[in-house]
Amino acid sequence: MASIKLILRKHQLDNTGHCPLYIRIIKDRKTKFITAGVKLKESEWDEVKQKVKKNHPNSARMNASLAQKIADAEAQVADLERKVKTVSIKKLKEAIKGKEVPNFFDYAYKRMETIKNTVSFSTYKAYYAAIVKFEKYMGTRDVYFDDFSVTLLNDYKNHLSINLKNGLTTQRLSIIVLGTIFNQAIKEDIIPETMFPFKKLTLKIDNAKRLFLNKDKIEALTNLELPEGKKATMWRDLFLFSIYAGGLRFSDVIEMQYKHYNKEEHKISKNIRKTGRTHQFKIGKVAIEILEKYSKEDAKNNDYIFPVIEDTVGYEKNDAMRYFLTAKYNKLANWHLKKMGQKMSLPFDLSFHLSRHTFATNALNNGMRIEHVSKLMDHRDISTTQVYAKIIGEELDKAVDNYIY
Predict the structure, then answer these.
(1) Contact 280, 231 (CB under 8 A)
(2) Which among 155, 178, 186 has a CA at the least distance from the CA of 35?
(3) Could you give the CA distance from residue 77 to residue 82 in angstroms, rounded to a whole number?
(4) Which of 134, 331, 355, 341 is nearest to 237 (CA)?
(5) Cβ neighbour number for residue 119 with a 10 Å cutoff
(6) The dihedral of CA 118, 385, 179, 191: what is its sign?
(7) Spatial distance between the Cα atoms of 149 and 10, rounded to a whole number of angstroms
(8) Per-residue pLDDT reduced to its tens digit, 50-104
(9) Confidence of residue 388 (pLDDT cuts 50, 70, 90)
(10) Distance CA 170, CA 165 (A)
């Protein structure tokens, strides 16, 4: 026999001092909660009498409504248990709430299809993967919005860290995606704001140190003797081009077309794949020389400058193919760069993304204003760029320490 009781969830206290009231069902030592659609202060709820206290202005009306909800719930449970000898607590919950609270995964996957053509493919893929990962953790799609709690999310966060060995950044993304789904459901009035359990969740930020090449290491890489063949030389050229072209991301470097480069003004103007924003900036001598090295006189505006993308028709077929091939080329570039880094005896693996860190750190070290660096890197928030300013400060402290006797 299932037991039903009203529970004020005090651990979900909001900024106004109110807590959500839930209908709790216990069946075979398993517990489920259903929102009662009411928020009360702790001083307004009588746990023993299961009533709203008279100090609440609408206590009589609310008590009548709550009594009806409990009566309806008990009737639903009794009716279902009479018809079915072995009924699960999930079925009891469904019977009580009807269509009041939707299934989380049904809504989440439907939402993914809605945004598929409005965000980049990489964003869509990352969001979809996060939902699949959470479904795998839950072991079922039979999960409703009101099944979520701070405890569940903390348990999931621990699972990401301990069992999946996910770093802090991956943990944050995995949780943030779930929170984004909740926020959208709240905006659409599908669920009440009281169901949002993410406010009391603490997500740590990854403060891992950004790796970069200083001026001497850039020069050493530039002059490094490479084996015969164009591939290794090309990947080094693209890495150096990124450093001297404002830290352009890998995808934007390999997608550089002749129409993106104004030869007379030495300016690049193109849409950044990750942000979708138009980015325009001037490049310096080294970047110009690399572009000219690969430029062809008879090229068309839509031709790619760097000889990376072999099947241009296949590459441009759809976003999924672009995503797949970009990842393939990036992996190849990183393989060559890692070999170069080993030849230079670097204490870390050299990869293409370090070109962005290298540009930012050296630009700030050379006196470029942080807001200009932020603009060149196409950062939405200058706080992202401030990470590099912190690196400069740490390097300066280290230099002072080394020269104080």
Answers:
(1) no
(2) 186
(3) 8
(4) 355
(5) 15
(6) negative
(7) 12
(8) 999 999 988 998 899 899 888 888 887 777 677 665 666 666 666 666 545 688 9
(9) low
(10) 10
Predicted confidence at residue 272, as pLDDT, reads 78
Task: Look at residue 297 and give its three-state secondary structure.
Answer: coil
Would the CA dihedral through 90, 94, 96, 100 be positive or negative? positive
In angstroms, the CA 35 to CA 145 distance is 10
Sequence letter at residue 139: G
Element (H, E) at 37: strand 30-41
Number of alpha carbons in the 13 Å side-chain half-sphere of residue 232: 15
- Say which residue, 122 or 105, is predicted with more confidence: 105
What are the phi and psi torsion angles at 20 (to 5°)? -75, 145
Q: Are 143 and 157 in contact (CB under 8 A)?
A: no
Secondary structure of residue 318 in the 3-state scheme: coil
> Facing residues of 24 across strands?
5, 33
Q: Name the pLDDT band for 378 (thresholds 50, 70, 90).
A: low
At 367, list the tokens.
């006196």
- Is the distance from CB of 329 to CB of 238 less than 8 angstroms? no
pLDDT, one tens digit per residue, over 192-222 is 787 788 888 887 766 556 678 888 999 999 9
- From residue 7, alpha-carbon distances to 3, 31, 68, 96 in Å are 12, 12, 16, 16
Handedness of CA 227, 231, 235, 241 (dihedral sign): positive
pTM here is 0.58
pLDDT grade, residue 400 (50/70/90)?
very low
CA pair distance 216, 393, nearest whole angstrom: 19
Residue listed under structure tokens 């572009």: 291
Give the CA radius of gyration of the chain. 29
